[in-house]
Design a protein that fits this description.
With 207 residues, the protein is mostly helical. The protein has eight helices and no strands. It has helices at 10-34, 41-56, 64-74, 76-101, 108-135, 140-153, 155-174, 179-206.
């Protein structure tokens, strides 16, 4: 019994990790609300991915809350600017998807399939961009191109992220009570872990 709950044991590591995920998610919610969601969501999300990167890379973090707050403030303006662009493109894609679902023509299936494919690709692109912004010194204009590059050069990792997204939506349906306290942070952590593997693989290949 003492071995299971040893400070360096698997059980304690899992509990510490879950505690970190809960704290990061609560910080994400707090700072999103602090900015009135409209101004807080994007910098809080960027800060959350940065915190995941720190944990994955095993960088020393004295205080999750202080580090989160610093990252949130440092990229507040740029994260919002990028977020509004993403929101605009996302709104256009959802409008396109909605319009294709109303089509009554024989080959409407192809337009619907294209619309869903574009939405999924756009989600993947944004996830990769968030991870890359936390990991590499890239500006918001350059990160789009680099994210596209990694998506196509790491199809296995990209497929794994898709599976993670499907697992997330399944968990939300099965145990929705965990969504506001844990699941979003867990999803973004796992996505960050897989995406970092893909990014580092591409970097090592082309060095």
């Amino acid at each position: 019994m003492g071995g299971i709950f040893h400070p360096n044991g698997l059980a304690m590591k899992c509990m510490n990790w879950l505690a970190d995920m809960c704290q990061i998610q609560l910080l994400w919610i707090f700072y999103s609300l602090r900015g009135g969601i409209v101004l807080g969501l994007f910098p809080a999300t960027r800060a959350m991915f940065y915190m995941h990167r720190q944990l994955i890379m095993k960088n020393e973090v004295a205080s999750l809350s202080q580090q989160f707050k610093m990252e949130y403030r440092q990229h507040f303006k740029r994260a919002n600017q990028m977020g509004y662009v993403i929101s605009g493109i996302g709104a256009f894609l959802m409008l396109y998807l909605r319009s294709t679902l109303l089509l009554k023509i024989d080959f409407a299936f192809y337009f619907i399939a294209l619309a869903y494919a574009l939405v999924v690709f756009f989600i993947l692109l944004n996830l990769y961009m968030l991870v890359m912004l936390s990991h590499l010194k890239l500006d918001e204009k350059e990160v789009w191109r680099q994210a596209l590059f990694v998506i196509f050069l790491s199809p296995g990792h990209t497929l794994l992220i898709l599976l993670v997204l499907f697992a997330f939506f399944f968990m939300v349906r099965v145990i929705p009570v965990l969504t506001p306290v844990l699941l979003i942070a867990v999803l973004s952590y796992v996505v960050s872990y897989v995406a970092l593997k893909a990014i580092n693989k591409v970097i090592c290949h082309y060095q």
